[in-house]
Amino acid sequence: MSDDLRDLYQEVILDHGRHPRNRRHVDGANHLARGENPLCGDKLMVFLKVNPAGVIEDAAFEGQGCAISTASASLMTEVIVGKTEEQVRRLFDSFHALTTGGEASGCDEMEDEMDRLQVLAGVRDYPVRVKCATLAWHTMAAALEDEQKVTTE
């Protein structure tokens, strides 16, 4: 990766970390979960409003975390709105593969979303930071399954 691209990615992460999108409570949320990364103290709650057809109409989060954790939650809430629960599960799998260096599959129709999430791919080079980047995603997945709490331990 070029230095210019790395700098751009870092700027995007810092922007989302300092000015997170969708950091709020969702009125009428019908799925929610609390997530915690005990290693670094990140704690957040993900709120989802899913319609009867299984489409996510609204997504938001509250809580405190490091810049990577906050940026990931911010980006996640932007890319999952308007997607079905099944699409979001595939997006989660692809994002997890992106951040861990695993094989991504089944997310071809969401190439734009994965391009936006590419800014967080660098965490795979720092294993301790992977949990920061994936906390919001694991919490969102738990919310969809109506699990109340998830931890990265």
Write the layout of secondary structure elements.
Elements: H1 3-18, E1 31-37, E2 42-50, E3 56-64, H2 67-80, H3 85-100, H4 111-117, H5 127-144, E4 149-151
Parallel strand pairs: 1-4
Antiparallel strand pairs: 1-2, 2-3
Major β-sheet annotation: 4 strands, mixed
Q: Kindly state the mean pLDDT as a whole number? A: 92
Architecture, according to CATH? Alpha-Beta Complex
Order of helices and strands: HEEEHHHHE
How many discrete domains? Answer: 1
- The CATH class name reads Alpha Beta
Helical amount:
40-55%
How many strand units?
4
Query: Count of helical segments?
Result: 5
Distance between the termini: 31 Å
Shape: globular
| CATH fold-level topology | Sufe protein. Chain: A
Tell me the Rg in angstroms.
14 Å
Strand content: 15-25%
Poorly predicted sequence stretches spanning 5 or more consecutive residues: none
Find the structural class using helix and strand composition.
alpha+beta
Please explain how this structure is put together.
This protein has 153 residues and is α+β, with helices and mostly antiparallel strands. It has helices at residues 3-18, 67-80, 85-100, 111-117, 127-144, and strands spanning 31-37, 42-50, 56-64, 149-151. It has a single domain, classed as Sufe protein. Chain: A. The chain is 46% helix and 18% strand. The chain has a four-stranded mixed β-sheet with strand order 3-2-1-4, with helices on one face. Helix 1 packs across helix 2 (67-80), helix 2 packs parallel to helix 5 and helix 3 packs antiparallel against helix 5 (127-144). The longest helix is centred in the C-terminal third of the chain and has 18 residues, at 127-144. The chain is globular and about 45 Å long. The mean pLDDT is 92.
